[in-house]
Write a structure and sequence with these properties.
Blueprint (H helix, E strand, L loop, with lengths): L1 H9 L6 H13 L16 E6 L2 E7 L2 E3 L2 E4 L5 E5 L2 E7 L1 H22 L5 H14 L6 E9 L2 E7 L5 E3 L2 E4 L3 H11 L6 H18 L7 E7 L4 E8 L4 H7 L15 E6 L2 E2 L6 E2 L4 E5 L1
Helix pairs in contact: 3-4, 5-6
């Protein structure tokens, strides 16, 4: 009867049995319970902008594990449906698996109804999934797409909160990207203006955030349902690009003979336990 009463008490709300379990584990471990594993610092810059003819999504391509760069060309713009895509920031595995699950559900919905899924449907599925796990799925998402009601752009946070705005940015480089968006965004932009704005916003994150870097990916979803994917749209960190924009200062190009040598000295190395000299005869040098 006690077990049945407990089951009855859990109906109609969240199941918090793991909370009680964690309390028991902490009491059992005692002082060792405070030695929790350290969290990884993730880094990304993702951006979305609405324009007159659709939506533009952008992302950098650096994947990090702590302070190490794990992948220099990671794809962070994920397929959701033929009329919508999603940028992911946070844990790479979580963003990929989350978007794959929702893409599968939307494809089944399209086959069952015979109609194009709406962007708000994907937004609802994503935020319900993330809210169910209370932020333990490390996925911060920007969802963009076009449906019968027009272009839409949503931000979904790891805890499940979401909103719709004409321009969005998330990730550790979002502060740098937002400075560009707040300064230059305007209503009814052309596609070329929107792509350039998203590119510059991603570049602001690439060059001002250590967790963001490498290249710029762009995806354009137009009102006529055509999609333009610009993988590695810009490669600002290639060696050739850096050499083209950066030249060594003249002050660092010190010509030979700038420092006058008056006398030099060299003492050869003596191998221990033998009379062998390495390095030749002893010489001396003095520099003015």
């Amino acid at each position: 009867m006690a077990a049945l009463a407990e089951l009855e008490a859990q109906r109609g709300g969240f199941n918090l049995e793991n909370f009680r379990r964690n309390e028991m584990i902490q009491k059992a471990l005692g002082p060792r319970a405070s030695q929790l594993p350290s969290a990884y610092k993730t880094g990304t810059t993702i951006v979305g902008v609405k324009f007159a003819g659709g939506v533009v999504l952008g992302a950098d391509t650096r994947a990090t594990g702590g302070s190490e760069v794990m992948d220099k060309n990671c794809a962070k713009i994920h397929y959701i449906a033929r009329n919508m895509y999603c940028c992911g920031a946070g844990t790479a595995a979580d963003t990929e698996r989350t978007t794959m699950m929702i893409a599968s559900q939307l494809e089944l919905l399209r086959l069952n109804t015979g109609s194009e899924p709406r962007v708000v449907t994907a937004n609802t599925l994503l935020k319900r999934l993330l809210h169910r796990y209370q932020g333990h799925i490390g996925a911060a998402l920007i969802l963009g797409g076009v449906d019968v009601t027009g272009p839409h752009l949503y931000t979904i946070h790891p805890h499940g909160s979401a909103w719709e705005l004409p321009y969005e940015t998330m990730g550790s480089g979002s502060l740098a990207a937002m400075s560009v968006l707040e300064t230059r965004f305007k209503e009814e932009m052309t596609e070329e203006e929107a792509v350039q704005l998203v590119t510059d916003a991603i570049l602001a994150g690439v060059f001002n955030d250590l967790g963001s870097g490498s290249n710029v990916d762009i995806t354009v979803i137009r009102n006529d349902r055509t999609v333009l994917k610009l993988r590695n749209h810009l490669k600002p960190n290639e060696v050739e690009a850096v050499r083209a924009t950066y030249t060594r200062p003249v002050k660092l190009n010190i010509p030979q003979g700038t420092t006058l040598v008056i006398r030099e000295s060299f003492k050869p190395h003596v191998v221990p336990g033998s009379d062998i000299l390495q390095g030749g005869e002893e010489t001396k040098m003095e520099i003015a």
